[in-house]
Amino acid sequence: MIGSGLVGKTALVTGTAHGIGAAVAAVLAEEGATVFGVDRDDVDVSNSAAVREYVADLPPVDVLVNNAGGVVGQTHQPIDEVTDEAWQAVIAANLTSSFVCTRAVAQQMKAAGWGRIVNISSGAGRSVSLTGIQAYVAAKAGQIGFTRQMAHELGPYGITVNCIAPGFVRSNPSTEKQWQSYGEEGQAKLVEGIALRRLGHAEDIANGVRYFTSDLAAWVTGQVLSIDGGHALF
Q: Catalytic residue among 54, 136, 157, 211, which?
């Protein structure tokens, strides 16, 4: 526990059904925040009207973690076989949702003169995707660009906006299915490409959110933190 800087603050975390989102919600609660977690079964966070209605029923949001996303059940297809619908579904889940939720809370944070926004991107946004899903790479890279632009725009209001690019974490059914698909040889190769020689845990990513939302990061904004055990080194 870094401190009690979030006592009395309200946090909104998207994608909390399991894995990273659930771990983030738990960490923010440990730090004293009142946490509201949403998943796609609760609110479609890429739908402007749904998000606006949901946020209107909450106390003013001080902390936003845009974690919702993923591959929405897709697997790699050659680019010439990717449909418009498949592309848009992944972009909506990952990038549009970050835009919609940030827009929904920005005015509240501006009025308060304080806010913390953390976008959960991916190592794929800084390199290539292990899944080979083109829209996923594009959306995660888009989140990084969106982070920087929002840091620039919202900084004068006392709002920091940062981003985490996780490495491979077996945190949900999609990543578990992906892990199993590699087989023993592929799994060993993946781990050997990580400097610390282990996969990440959801709590590893959540601790990055703990830092970005703490007083220790009061002068940190527009940054992208790779939490990947050193995979980006290779």
A: 136
